Amino acid sequence: MKVGNLGNEKRGIKGDDFEQLFNAYYVSLCLYARKYLGDEQQAEDAVQEVFYQLLQKKGSHSHYKDVRSYLYQSVRNQCLNDIRHQKVIKKHQAGVIQFNSDDKHFFNDIVNAEVYRQLADALNQLPKQCRTVYKLSLEGLKSMEIAEDLGISVETVKTHRKRAKRFLKERLKNLFSLLLFGL
């Protein structure tokens, strides 16, 4: 089958010639493109883009074999361009995700640092004996163990812990809103 002159320098491909080419090659070009892209819709889009470019192209294609080679090569190039474009998109998306993830970690790090700073400041404002008792209780020691270590009564240990809790609760009440904001 010889397609004949598919256009001239001023007008591009004639309607009947273009339709003939489209009908003759569309399905096989889609199958060819699908081998590259792996997706039927992407393959059809690539082939349609090639036909669109051919329709816009000025010049002539006088032999069937020349047009066939041109179409397959154009589809191959379009597929490779689409693959490169998809890689760029994925790389960009990964960068955006990483940026957002880093941004979230950065914010969490700031909140954690601020919480620890305010907690340390509040603990340092406790009277020395009260602070020592509370720190030991935070380490998991029982009242009896703390009393033995410090040489004070169990009741004194309990009193220091109650004072420390009351003081910290009052001193750190604004910290809870910061924590809720961070969540």
Shape assignment: rod-shaped
Sketch the topology as an H/E string, one letter per element. Answer: HHHHHHH
Task: Give the rounded overall mean pLDDT.
Answer: 80
Count of the domains: 2
Low-confidence stretches: 1-11
- From the helix content, strand content and strand pairing, which structural class follows? mainly alpha
Give the helix proportion (percent range): over 70%
Number of helices: 7
Quaternary structure state of the chains depicted: single chain
The tally of strands reads: 0
Strand content: under 5%
Summarize the biggest pleated sheet: none
Q: Termini, distance in Å?
A: 70 Å
Give me the secondary-structure topology.
Elements: H1 15-37, H2 40-56, H3 64-125, H4 128-138, H5 143-150, H6 154-171, H7 175-182
Account of the protein in words:
The protein has 183 residues and is an all-alpha fold. It has two domains: 118 residues, no CATH class; 50 residues, Orthogonal Bundle (Arc Repressor Mutant, subunit A). It contains seven helices and no strands. Helix 1 packs antiparallel against helix 2 and helix 2 crosses helix 3. The longest helix has 62 residues. The N terminus is likely disordered.
